[in-house]
Design goal:
This protein has 310 residues and is α+β, with helices and mostly antiparallel strands. It has helices spanning 12-21, 42-45, 88-105, 120-127, 163-173, 176-182, 186-193, 246-255, 272-280; strands at 2-6, 25-29, 35-37, 51-56, 59-68, 74-82, 110-116, 131-141, 156-157, 210-217, 220-228, 233-238, 263-268, 284-295, 297-299, 305-307. The protein has two domains: 2-136 and 292-300, Gcn5-related N-acetyltransferase (GNAT) (Aminopeptidase, 3-Layer(aba) Sandwich); 143-261, Aminopeptidase, CATH 3.40.630.
């Protein structure tokens, strides 16, 4: 029989036993695009109220933990590890069920999973109403070349007053099913982008790590480029109706990264043109990720949200 309960401080010894027997990699993908792995420091680092363990015959058979998502009413699954045995699928299912029940009790509206596309967690999540709303491919350039004088598209730094134009770009470039999962309204989008917390003029958050650039005219933005120097990544969003060179955008992004090391870029399944532009500039695909969401609230006739029990 499998039982699931929150992790307790007294679980240290069972956790150590579980750690020695389980694979380190979990199939989940972190914010730095690396595969999440279970470490000994996780026992102290995971908030106990957001961590659950599956027990079988008195021993830990699986563990999962969440962190707050981009908004206060969302969770992102941060850890998910099970012992590789004949009951692994059942353990995964029970952990996910308990996690969803706890989320509903706390008023969480959405739970997100970001994992490798071939992870068994994807199929298990679909059994309990998780929906794969998009997938993404991680592209990598092994060695950023020296690129100079490539701002022929007219990029400028993003300004604080750009949020309405950027939201219109987001609404035009991103399919409705994805926006429904990640943010349909201007307010939801602003929170997920961190507009309440950080100033785009001072970096995200208040450092030189991230820089945003846009191309547009007359109050309309056609292209949005994000440069994350610490993660050596670029992110691109372009109006599909705009006649603009995607290769030129990629070139400009590379010019803002230090030469010599790798560069990364995520491409979602609705960004086929970007994939071709990256490949033309020396990038190649290295991993495929599945993005899933479980909605714990539904829209009703009156303008209010009603939590749905798992």
């Amino acid at each position: 029989m499998i039982t699931v309960r929150p992790l307790l401080p007294t679980d240290l010894l069972p956790f150590l036993s579980f750690y020695r027997r389980t694979p380190r990699e979990q199939g989940l993908v972190g914010r730095n695009n690396a595969t999440r792995s279970l470490g000994l420091t996780d026992f102290a680092g995971i908030p106990l109220q957001h961590c659950w363990i599956a027990l079988r015959d008195g021993q830990i058979a699986g563990i999962t933990a969440v962190r707050p998502g981009s908004t206060v009413d969302t969770w992102q699954i941060e850890r998910f590890v099970c012992l590789p045995d004949v009951q692994e699928a059942a353990v995964r299912l029970e952990l996910l069920r308990r996690l969803c029940e706890s989320a509903a009790e706390e008023g969480v509206q959405r739970i997100f999973i970001r994992s490798h596309a071939d992870s068994p967690l994807v199929d298990t999540a679909r059994q309990i109403a998780f929906v794969q709303y998009t997938n993404e491919i991680l592209y990598r350039h092994p060695h950023v070349p020296r690129v100079v004088g490539v701002n022929y598209l007219g990029f400028r730094a993003r300004r604080g007053k750009d949020h309405h134009a950027l939201f219109r770009l987001y609404s035009s470039a991103v399919p409705g099913s994805v926006r429904q999962a990640e943010g349909m309204t201007l307010e939801e989008w602003r929170r997920s982008e961190g507009w309440r917390l950080h100033s785009p003029r001072r970096g995200f958050p208040f450092t030189d790590r991230r820089r945003d650039y846009v191309v547009g005219e007359n109050g309309t933005i056609f292209a949005w480029l994000q440069i994350d120097r610490s993660r050596r990544s670029i992110s691109v969003l372009v109006d599909p109706k705009a006649e603009i060179s995607l290769e030129g955008i990629v070139e400009f992004g590379l010019s803002k990264l230090n030469t010599g090391a790798e560069a990364l870029c995520l491409v979602r399944d609705y960004q086929g043109g970007l994939a071709h532009a990256l490949e033309a500039r020396g990038f190649g695909p290295v991993a495929e990720h599945a993005l899933l969401v479980r909605m714990l609230a539904v829209w009703v006739k009156e303008p209010r949200l009603v939590p749905v029990r798992a």
